[in-house]
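[Automated response] Your request has been received and processed.

Submitted sequence:
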Amino acid sequence: MIQTDLLIIGAGPTGLFTVFEAGLLKMKCHLIDSLPQPGGQLAEIYPKKPIYDIPGFPTIDAGELVDNLMEQIKPFNAGFTLGESAVTIDKDDEGQFIVTTDKGTKHRAPSVAIAGGLGVFTPRKPPIANITDFEDRGIKYIIKDPEVYRGKKVVISGGGDSALDWTIFLAEIAEEVSLVHRRTSFRGHLDSVDKVMALAEAGKVNLITNAEVKEVAGGDKLESVTIHAKDGSKTVVECTDWLPLFGLTPTLGPIGDWGLEIEKNSIVVDNATDYSTNIEGIYAIGDVNTYPGKLKLILCGFHEGTIMVQSAFKRAYPDKKLSFKYTTVMGGVGSLE
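Generated structure:
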């Protein structure tokens, strides 16, 4: 049994920063994550993707942000249970929560903070019969290392931010980039749309709209895709890689069966106080929660975790008085009386 002051489910950026804020209050944290390494989506899905909305960093790669967060929490010696998913939650006779993973590891804490991002992800796959024949042999739904596509002929499908961002990025390193979208309008940021249009006009991107990839072909690896236009015409495009970036479908997994109030696959919390759920002692922070005016930003997750630990401290140490101080005072450590 692993005992801790605050059990955090999810070792993404919000969970990691919460360790820092809890550490300032002398609280011991332990994190559970189904992934084999800390960092959540940033480490698993797009470690090389630039992030632009972290204060003090005009731009920072997702993987670098994770490294910085891990360095920041190093003094607080947080525990990690990685490669395991939180499955069940119970309460013992002393009012402590017992969380058990899919591998049987048990954790005990007076408070639980769910920081599981958007949950467990599965890619949205196009309905092509033989698509699985080329998965990881030319077809991928997530870009982890863009250097893999240097000098390659790449076809990207999609109309959202991910498709636009990677089109812009890969246009500088790939031999050839084609962007296929079933409409003429895009869902992504206007600035990204303008950049893609400029690249298309400059001949650096082959932009194909009102069309979809409907067929894939090759031998041991992907060799071509067939694009079907709305006017009925078909075009075969030779390529080494096809990236259908239609997004990822999130699910809460077993956490959805814990009796928490759920709204549209998100956990409802009270943002007027401490981001608590309908179960006292269980909190939800970051992209996994919802409340009026919610913004799914890393920055917002950092704020929510900061507020939440003030409440979790009172549950861990009900007889101690917390005197919060700025991090510039006493080396950033709050005093306990």
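Summary generated for your ticket: The chain has two domains: 2-121+249-336, 125-246. The chain has a mean pLDDT of 91.
If you did not submit this request, please reply to this message.
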